[in-house]
Amino acid sequence: MTATKGRGATGDDTRGDTVAAVVRQWQAVHPDLDTGPMEIIGRVNRCAALLQQAEDAPLRRAGLSRPEFDLLGALRRTGHELTPANWPARPSPPGPPSPSGSSSSPNAAWSSAAATPGTAASPICA
Fold this sequence. Notes:
Layout: H1 18-29, H2 36-61, H3 66-77, H4 108-115
């Protein structure tokens, strides 16, 4: 499925298309290269990026980033007040071995501090 210059895999005119420009560059260097899959995946990725931008626009207007929105949603879904001490336990991914030979994760210090009795536990979500 080799595309011709200026035409995408579907035959549409794509001269103003970013993916088409990249394909033309590849074809100039490697004219025998099958760029059909590159065109399809490139356009699917471009569509996904445009959809993500449209989805994130209301969050930006509200002053939130996607990770902040996801965290607030997770906290709200619990239906009750959460503090670091009573967050649901979740196994941390294994990290590289420490110099002492034990495995650690980037969240290990946070996890142990949150689970330590007597630490300050202010409500995060009411």
